[in-house]
Amino acid sequence: MPKFYFTFGCGIDDPHRNCYTVIEAEDDGEARDIMFDRFGNKWSMQYTEDQWMIDPNDPKNTTMLRMAGYHGDQPISQAEIWNLKEIK
Questions:
Q1: 50-87: per-residue pLDDT in tens?
Q2: Tens-place pLDDT, residues 10-45
Q3: What percent of the chain has pLDDT over 90?
Q4: CA 78 – CA 33 distance, rounded (Å)
Q5: Whether this model's pTM surpasses 0.85
Q6: What radius of gyration, in Å, describes the C-alpha atoms of the chain?
Q7: Residue (of 49, 69, 58) closest to 6 by Cα position
């Protein structure tokens, strides 16, 4: 079953600020429904597994990775870039 990643962002109140959670679901709509059931509308972004991992060799990621201070050449997750903590 696919995994979907949800972030809470810096504008969300504690205890979920700068955190993320992973939801396994059949599709993005089901994952979003589960997310709303668990956290209401107190979250920020939804990502697929492909979107969650950032390829530093893809030119469209250059600016974001520079802003985050990442200078490596290996794929890196959104959680690693932004120092997010997982909520299980």
A1: 999 999 999 999 998 999 999 999 999 999 999 999 99
A2: 777 778 888 999 999 999 999 999 999 999 988 999
A3: 81
A4: 22
A5: yes
A6: 14
A7: 49
Tokens of 86: 């997982």
CB of 85 closer than 8 Å to CB of 21:
no
Q: Which two tokens stand for residue 64?
A: 């974001």
Q: Collapse the DSSP code of 57 into the 3-class scheme (helix H, G, I; strand E, B; otherwise coil) and give the result.
A: coil
Helices marked H in 1-88: 28-39, 49-52, 62-68, 78-82
Residue 68 CB coordination number (10 Å): 16
Max Cα–Cα distance, the chain, nearest Å: 38
Strands 19-24 and 85-86, bridge-based pairing = parallel
- Residue 10: phi and psi, rounded to 5, are -80, -15
